[in-house]
Specification:
This protein has 315 residues and is of the alpha+beta class. It has one domain: Methenyltetrahydromethanopterin Cyclohydrolase, Chain A, domain 2 (2-Layer Sandwich). The chain is 36% helix and 24% strand. The chain has twelve helices and twelve strands. β11 and β12 form a beta hairpin. α1 packs antiparallel against α3. The longest helix is centred in the C-terminal third of the chain and has 15 residues.
Length: 315
Amino acid sequence: MTSLNERASVLADALAADADALRVAVTTLDGGTRLIDCGSAVPGGLEAGRRFAEICMGGLGWASFVPLTLEGRWFPGLVVATDHPALACLGSQYAGWKIDRDKFFAMASGPGRALIRAEELYDDLDVDERASTAVLCLETREAPPEAIAAHVAERAGVAAGDVTLLFAPTASLAGGVQIAARVVETALHKLHELDFDVRRVVSALGSCPLPPPARKDPEAIGRTNDAVLYGGQVELTVDAPDEDLEPLVARLPASASDDYGEPFGKVLEAAEWDFYKIDPLLFSPAEVRLVSTRSGRGFQAGGVNVQTLERSFYG
């Protein structure tokens, strides 16, 4: 199969070729690294965010806009599907590499992580990524400078001219879309945190309401997390017997965490804006269904919370 980075690079080329229509900006640093701004100094938009999300999944996941009706209330939404859940969502999409150097900070996701392998997560995945190009997706408002691009290239083992860095702030249309597209990823990550072998998940489909854009990034962090925690719904098809899945599913939804209930912005404020003070098991979809390929039975837990969702989005 074509490498994650090569697949993502083809999608990034298509995004760059349609830059004007998608309201994104493409620039090249002196060292040759390509930057694609999807919502910082440019408007970006919904379609830019959708493509950002598919690039983030290494071209092994697909996102589509849909209308969602949750408890009788209508929301604009996103559906995400993949037949390579562990590889697309954890091996590529998960924002697991923290870039914090030279006064620049960003959480990095995307297939470039599979070349860098800075995370213990890769010890549990069947990922043997080999590519001559690297693609990373950054959640940041600041354009990555030359020194950061050189650092990424060195860690990925490729030339700086073969690196593409996409970026968008949380408080942007594209930023909101690409975070909503992580609804399946959060379920996979929760499974991994519970020591379940995520390679047994053979396909995944999830939906998530799209948060309205916020004025500032801190407010947007609250809304984007609430979209998943209180509105996200995921079905995972798993190669496992019923006796493995039935006791597991109750631990998967966000409601299994003691920090569940208030809009995420309030939870984060109570934690003094320190993510590490928040129960890591909170970060998962509102509702999860596990379907066994062996029996055909499904096991479901959790449920959407429209009241909290509307408080976050429109309150």
